[in-house]
Amino acid sequence: MAPILEVRNLKTTFKQSRSSITVVDGVNFTLEPGETLGIVGESGCGKSVTSLSIMRLLGKNAVTDGTIAFEGKNLLELSEKEMKKVRGNRVAMIFQEPMTSLNPLHSVGKQISEPLRNHLGLSKAQAKEKTIQLLKAVGIPRADEIFSSYPHQLSGGMRQRVMIAMAMACQPKLIIADEPTTALDVTIQAQILELMKKLKKENGTSIVMITHDLGVVAEMCERVIVMYAGQVVEEADIRSLFRSPKHPYTIGLMKSMPDFAEDQDRLQAIPGTVPLLSDLPKCCRFAPRCEWATDRCHQTAPEFISVTEQHRVRCVLVEEEKV
């Protein structure tokens, strides 16, 4: 079966007055029909920019190289008019912060109804009926009343449910969820994740789950890619990644997770910070923060090599079998 999404050598560049910064550098991954793929990394590693590049929401010339094939068609070759028919219809996105993504001037009912009318050609009455059904499907009580409510009148969990209802309105084949549970308490987070699993099971939707939370990845995903400083540094199926992480950055992320089986005074942290994208090392981008870095790490840009058929990593130490 052909992948529903295939990203090859994606490069996204932001232009400044006298220079340009490559924010996403040569990213490759595929997504199978009905699969959930996790994209993990710290803030500033390029996760969200990758998702916005796929949706073509960064401007006409931001993506400077690569292909984004959705259902066999390169989205980068579509006109803006053609792309509008794809967004919200075949591909939908759940944004990180619904309060800034939802329009404060329109009711939530109007905002969910809009794609139903634009893409499916429903009448105003039909769109309202369908919207109320969607609100009920995502677990929102008093759906008839909430239809007329404005975003500021809802809680964070309710707004996120509205975003999911909007994303599911036209039953897309692909949903990109950018930190969908950030800033929600653990109870609401669990409810949102269960809701997404239910929608995926019922509709066969493929999901790209962007998060910094490895717990969410373990709960939701079949495969995961780890990004650092604009590059993919590790890719594996979920079991391989958690049982045997290979890249020092991935190992550091794992160690930073709290272990409730042990009595910990402090969580372990990765030293340093993500480098500025305008001043990236010419060698391994993680080398300045890596406790195992050797002279070669500070001199060589590592290749993305296969450990097994399902597991790939960008690290010279793995090449030398030191990790």
C-alpha end-to-end distance: 35 Å
Report low-confidence residues grouped into runs of 5 or more. none
- Tally of alpha and pi helices: 12
In which range does the helix fraction lie? 25-40%
* Largest sheet, spatial ordering of strands: 6-7-8-3-9-10-12-11
> Beta fraction of the residues?
15-25%
From the helix content, strand content and strand pairing, which structural class follows? alpha/beta
Number of strands: 12
For the residues shown, what is the average pLDDT?
Answer: 89
Instruction: Give the CA-based shape.
Output: globular
Q: Radius of gyration, Cα only, in angstroms?
A: 21 Å
Largest sheet: 8 strands, mixed
What letter string, H or E per element, gives the SSE order? EEEHEEHEHHHHHEHEHEEHHEEH
Describe this structure as you would to a colleague.
The protein is built from 12 helices and 12 strands. With 323 residues, the protein is α/β, with parallel strands linked by helices. It has a domain at 250-323. The strands form 2 sheets. It has an 8-stranded mixed beta sheet with strand order 6-7-8-3-9-10-12-11, with helices on both faces. Strands 2-1-4-5 form a 4-stranded antiparallel beta sheet, with helices on one face. β9 and β10 (231-237) form a beta hairpin. α4 (108-120) packs across α5, α4 runs parallel beside α7 and α7 packs parallel to α8.
